[in-house]
Specification:
The chain is of the alpha+beta class.
Length: 599
């Protein structure tokens, strides 16, 4: 006997009987087996099943003369290896399964079912009986993967008493001898790499009593209960007990388990009911949860509906989004046991989930789609996983179809980019977030002329815009659809738990308009940033109100007009001050962007 996978099999023992007469087992044994729903087969198989039910140790019998070189090897299955089991089925094995093999091939599926080639038949002369201990989780996976459940596998999954393997072998031989069916061969052949010792637990009687919750039970009563349950109790010099757990009690591993055993036998009805003593702590909510609450209140207040989708998606959605192969969002975690084949990938973006939800509703005659989701995405640092992935909280919005519900008083216009931008700005206002700007789009699944990147303090935090027509078609969306996704964590630090207010100004504000002609590739965002820098602290607001490109503007240029609002909280501003600021702004814009002032 040789165990080659010592992590999956801790003991493998064999005992032999010769000159076997394979017949029916006695009637009393057949009745007992039928009583526990086991079908009698022959005396050898029935004895192994009887011992399994009697002692809890699964066993297996081999036709000794059919095992090549009379050698038993316990190992992992080889890639592509197959085995015909006792039920006549050919099984495809994988390297995470345990097999019993001879020097050439597998002859049994360890802990689950034996092989047909070494089956005990009416022609068998010598029988080798096996009692072994296999690693429970491995047996469970093997049984599940092959769809093969057996009485043996159910017991190995839950753990067996390794120390009693010899008892099972001796009991089986004794029963066969009593039937006059064989001659016993003395001795056991086994491989037992690391002999297991019984578990020992140090326990303090007072601690057991305190955990049970009563002072009425004495040390002697607890000791008597444990000893009647076959626990060995030894006194220690410090007043504690060293308790040896019976080898078949795999469920007892600490003194809390001992308290449970004592309470169970003492009687729960004898233990008085008391309220638990708990330390009171003031509850609180994480800042990210406060931000999420504000976002929910704001978006539902402007007519959007919140949805909750699965954190799993179909990997084909990445192809629908036209994401390139090198895109980091394709490096997603694959679930080993998915709820279905369509949900095998942990999402790295919320967009596919919302687009599929929008398509589902459009297919059911919903003309107005206005949805948002606050959910987590899972971003692994590397694949395969070596540590937990980063979990980021994201907000995603999808708008499609009509701007308003069907009503004769409302317009029948479709949603556009500025509906989406307005929803984002409403949320930012509620969070009192500042320094949010927009840059040229980067996402391949967005329409290049109707999208942008969202920046917070100059850092990219998301994107928004219309779907690319090809992507819209791939998701079966019947109307132009707009999506947004931003990382909420970037707004947590700047978000105000309590809204901050300022006094109403006592002095009036003054507005000035300027229009400049710039090359078409100059961004209005960059122009506004330069205006804010040059205008200084007196500038309270700057707004873009017109963009024009036509006959009155030279080819390759556009006219951009801004409204600038100035105000001082301490005094009324003079025209000269404002004119000086405007002149400074125009001068710098002309120098930096090759702009021309438009009269």
């Amino acid at each position: 006997v040789e165990i080659q996978c010592k992590d999956l099999c801790t003991r493998f023992a064999l005992r032999m009987v010769k000159n076997i007469q394979v017949t029916e087992s006695p009637e009393w044994m057949q009745k007992l087996l039928r009583a526990v729903n086991i079908r009698p087969i022959n005396n050898v198989v029935d004895v192994t099943n009887y011992v399994m039910m009697e002692l809890g140790q699964p066993m297996h019998a081999y036709d000794y003369d059919t095992v090549k070189d009379h050698t038993w090897i316990v190992r992992r299955a080889e890639e592509g290896e197959t085995l015909v089991t006792l039920d006549g089925q050919k099984r495809d094995l994988t390297p995470n399964m345990i097999v019993i093999a001879n020097p050439e091939k597998a002859i049994g599926l360890g802990g689950v079912m034996g092989g047909l080639a070494t089956e005990v038949t009416g022609k068998t002369v010598n029988v080798m009986l096996e009692a072994a201990t296999f690693y429970g989780p491995s047996i469970r996976h093997t049984s599940k993967d092959l769809g093969l459940r057996s009485e043996a596998s159910q017991r190995f999954e839950r753990g067996v008493d390794t120390i009693r393997d010899h008892d099972a072998l001796n009991r089986a031989v004794h029963l066969l001898e009593e039937m006059g069916a064989c001659e016993a061969v003395s001795g056991v052949v086994e491989d037992y790499p690391v002999p297991q010792e019984p578990v020992q637990i140090k326990a303090v009687p007072e601690a057991l009593r305190r955990r049970i919750g009563t002072e009425e039970i004495t040390d002697q009563q607890m000791r008597t209960i444990l000893e009647k349950l076959n626990f060995t109790v030894a006194d220690q010099a410090d007043g504690s007990w060293l308790i040896t757990v019976p080898t078949w009690r795999n469920d007892c591993s600490c003194d809390a388990d001992l308290s449970e055993e004592v309470a169970r036998m003492y009687g729960y009805d004898k233990i008085p009911s008391t309220l638990p003593q708990l330390d009171m702590a003031r509850g609180g909510q994480a800042p990210i949860e406060d931000v999420k609450d504000k976002v929910r209140d704001t978006l539902t207040g402007i007519g959007l509906d919140e949805v909750m989708t699965y954190t799993f998606i179909n990997a084909n959605d990445f192809d629908k989004l036209r994401l390139p192969a090198e895109d980091s969002r394709r490096q997603a975690i694959q679930v080993i046991n998915p709820i279905s084949d369509d949900f095998k990938t942990m999402r790295t973006t919320l967009v596919p989930s919302l687009l599929n939800t929008a398509a589902y509703n459009q297919a059911r005659q919903t003309e107005r789609i206005a949805l948002f989701e606050l959910g987590r995405v899972f971003l692994p640092k590397a694949l395969p996983l070596t540590e937990q992935p980063a979990e980021k909280t994201r907000l995603s919005i999808v708008l499609s179809g009509k701007r308003n519900e069907l009503n004769w008083t409302e317009s029948k216009d479709a949603v556009d980019f500025f509906d989406l931008k307005g929803a984002l700005e409403q949320m930012l206002e509620a969070l009192q977030a500042t320094d949010v700007t927009y840059a040229a789009p980067k996402e391949v699944f967005l329409h290049p002329g109707k999208s942008c990147t969202v920046l917070h303090h100059g850092k990219e935090v998301g994107f928004m815009g219309a779907l690319h027509p090809q992507v819209q078609e791939r998701f079966s969306l019947s109307a132009e659809t707009y999506v947004l996704e931003v990382d909420l964590s970037s707004f947590v630090e700047g978000a105000e738990k309590v809204p901050q207010f300022t006094h109403i100004p006592q002095f009036p504000s003054t507005s000035r308009d300027i229009a400049v002609v710039v090359p078409v590739n100059v961004s209005a965002v960059d122009l506004m940033a330069e205006i804010r820098t040059q205008a200084g602290p007196l500038l309270k607001d700057v707004r873009l109100f017109d963009v024009y490109a036509g006959k009155q503007v030279k080819h390759g240029c556009k006219s951009v007009a801004f409204s600038l609002t100035f105000q001082d909280l301490e005094r009324t501003l003079k025209d000269k001050e404002i004119n000086d600021i405007i002149n400074q702004v125009v001068k710098k814009v002309q120098e930096k962007f090759e702009a021309e002032l438009r009269e």
